Amino acid sequence: MVTVRRKELIEVKLDAHCPTMSLTEVRVRGHSLVVDEPPYRHGTDVGPTPLETMLAALMSCTHVIGARIAHERGVAMTFKAMSCTGYLDHRGIDKEADVPVPFPKIEMAITVATDLDAAAFESFKTELEARCPMSVILRQAGTTIEQTWTLA
């Protein structure tokens, strides 16, 4: 019998072209992503900012890992809607103060349809918090992530 060992570390590689002081054109696995700043920060506003992209990654990660956990548990769950608000302490960017946690708080509102009972849903949320890489990274950096879940 052959035993297949999975790699512990999976390589995630991106490349970027930076044509202006704020525009970043990212390529990954044949896909393109444009990240920019608004005009008042010397950008052309052709894409979300780096910080908006980070919050989008948190939302996407929450959705994808949440759906995966539900699938692994054999339960029905459909993510219906999500919103996210990050509270940025801009003083570190502006060199006004030492800011160890640029996003001290992030609020998320998540609406799902599921057949999980209350206890299983709490267990699901705990597992999701531990398995979503973006959530883990942000929490370990000191960010408080407040999630409000609504059942549709």
TrEMBL record:
- The domain of life is Bacteria
Q: Where is the signal peptide?
A: none
Provide the transmembrane region boundaries.
Answer: none
Task: Quote the InterPro entries the UniProt record gives.
Answer: KH_dom-like_a/b (IPR015946), OsmC/Ohr_fam (IPR003718), OsmC/Ohr_hydroprdx_reductase (IPR052924), OsmC/Ohrsf (IPR036102)
**PANTHER family to which the protein is assigned, alphabetical:** HYDROPEROXIDE REDUCTASE
Name of the protein this chain belongs to: OsmC-like protein
Q: Taxonomically, what lineage is the organism? A: Bacteria, Pseudomonadati, Pseudomonadota, Alphaproteobacteria, Hyphomicrobiales
